Amino acid sequence: MYLATVLWLLRFGVDAHGHTNHAQGTHTPESVVHEAGGHEYRCTHDPSHIKAMHVDDIAHSKRLRTESTADVRRPMKFAFLPYNDAAGTSAKAVYLRDTIMPAVQKILSEIFTVETWDNSILNTDECTIDSTTLALPGVSGGDEDFYLMYDMFDLSSGTIAKAGACYILTSNSRPIVGIAAFDPDYVGPDSSYSEDGQIKVALHEVFHAIGFSGSSFPGLTTATTRGKTRNFIASATVLAKAKEQAGCDSLKGAELEDEGGSGTAGSHFEERVYGNELMTGIVNTRTMKVSSLSLAVMEDSGWSYVADYNKADTLFWGKEKGCSFHDDFCLTLGSPQTTVSESTFPVLVSGDTVNSRGYSKYGCTMGREYKGVATAYYTSLSVLPTDYQYYSEDTSTRRGNGNIYMEYCPYYSAEEAYSSSFAQTNEAAGNCRATVDLGANAAKEVYGANSRCFMVSDGKPYCFEYGTLAASNMTMIKVAGATEFSNCTCTKCDGTDGTTTVVSGGITITCPPVSEIYGQSPNLIERRHEY
User: Fold this and answer.
1) Whether pTM exceeds 0.70
2) Which of 97, 123, 394, 476 is the residue whose CA sits 20 to 30 A from 243?
3) Which runs of consecutive H residues, i.e. helices, occur in 283-348?
4) Which CATH number fits domain 432-516: 3.90.1150.10, 2.30.38.10, 3.40.190.10, 2.30.34.10?
5) Could you check whether the bond before residue 29 is cis, i.e. omega within 30 degrees of 0?
6) Mean pLDDT in the chain?
7) Which CATH superfamily is domain 224-322 in?
């Protein structure tokens, strides 16, 4: 059965994803920008952090007369259409066209089914991104469910990519055509970003193009938490997934970012609450997760998306940490401090100095895939907001992590580990899941797909092989040279921060709660090779 829907043609210059250098209050397209982990948002060439910005593009999208079908559902068909330099023969263009975009295409078809739309868009109109105008090709809704037109050119100011909706259906405002641009400096086999990292950037942008936008979020509501009124997505599925993720039945919904100006605020999940989720405002290309929250937003959009939650990644950030993790400040002010989660936001004091930047402590990133360092240093601000002046025993009111999106909370960062004295000279050394054969070694570390980060009695993080038995709240650990796993029978493996230790091969290891390590990994983007 066909549902006739009228779409009106409107001239539209896409305000796409413009990731720029901490451009608070700056009206820029949705895009991806270099962010230095903990370096006060300086625009640097750190291949692990991307600042995401978004503006309200759906409200200005062109509308075209078309029809949609409500009775034909299939795995999402996503077409990418290169233009100009992106359609050329350079190594960068070929890499983007033959490696990155097909991976995004494959992931979307695995996580979403969608109802088809019918009829055609003619090649008599165009969409603009920055100052570049792309003429629409003749496309048909019977062939694909979404079309992405993209080009490759200099985006300046450290911007890596940007994207937005271009055409939407009048019946329900569902985006059916999007437009994107990629900066060639950050694309290709010779990029400082890994292949998986570039796929994460592209997938983040495509989510915005298909409709992850502040203008279309379902079930928006407000509530007061952590000292201010904040926005939440409280549609049925998103609310249920947010409560499940938090382990908090009184949660108001999935909290939205309130920092970063119009390009970031309101169109991403809150960084402080959701850390390394795909659609937070800072995209971390090492540890980013495509969680059930992003899938639920699309499912609740009213655009006929149905998500396969079995394909979603486990988001360990905030997992089952309870209501206080969301409702309370990460650290109490003054001394002695307390924290809502030591494994996420560690208490740092003046004696903690594992690097030269400030108060600092070794640890593991959430999900325990990487070794990390948490740091609180003198930020470049003259004074931090009062609610975030956690270090009153220090006469400075400037000490914090430096990341406003994280509310200046110190947290274990893989990027900090690479710049600290503990770190590693290459990425593999801090990535427990890397293919590194250490052989016999004094620390008895084991790297590989089944390894994770654990704290050892010397106060440093190490990589060991692991297994889990969720039903009995047990983590099993194997060190190098061991012939079998040692059971880590935690007395506090119920999701709270535990301190139980296990001795394996002479190494005393702190046992984490099962909630911090049990879940689906490797991540969705890496699992694309299994589809």
Assistant:
1) yes
2) 476
3) 292-299, 323-327
4) 2.30.34.10
5) no
6) 78
7) Leishmanolysin , domain 2 (3.90.132.10)
